[in-house]
Q: What sequence folds into this?
């Protein structure tokens, strides 16, 4: 889980991008609604990493019911080939995280 918490925010430039990535992986809008409201109220009050940690924790609490979503998040994170949308200074970190995910 820690690798995904490092990887997913780095694959998305914005906090909204993180939410879109998670929604695209099948995370229910119910799990994302709190974070959308926080972003609407005060973007600086929440970080991309906190969003991912909170959402992944709630998905893990679902047990087997969240298995498909967990797999899809991992699949989307690993299969992303185009790192050109990242900040130039962060490209090496996601590559390392992706390699670690591939190896485990």
A:
């Amino acid at each position: 889980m820690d690798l995904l918490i490092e990887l997913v925010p780095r694959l998305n430039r914005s906090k909204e991008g993180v939410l879109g990535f998670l929604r695209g992986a099948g995370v229910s809008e119910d799990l994302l609604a709190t974070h959308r409201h926080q972003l609407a109220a005060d973007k600086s009050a929440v970080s991309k990493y906190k969003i991912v940690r909170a959402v992944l924790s709630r998905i893990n609490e679902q047990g087997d019911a969240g298995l498909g979503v967990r797999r899809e998040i991992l699949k989307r994170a690993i299969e992303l080939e185009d790192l050109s949308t990242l900040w130039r200074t962060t490209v090496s970190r996601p590559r390392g995280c992706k390699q670690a995910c591939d190896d485990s």
In short: The mean pLDDT is 86. The longest helix spans residues 48-61. Helices lie at 2-11, 15-24, 29-41, 48-61, 67-79, 92-103. The chain has six helices and no strands.
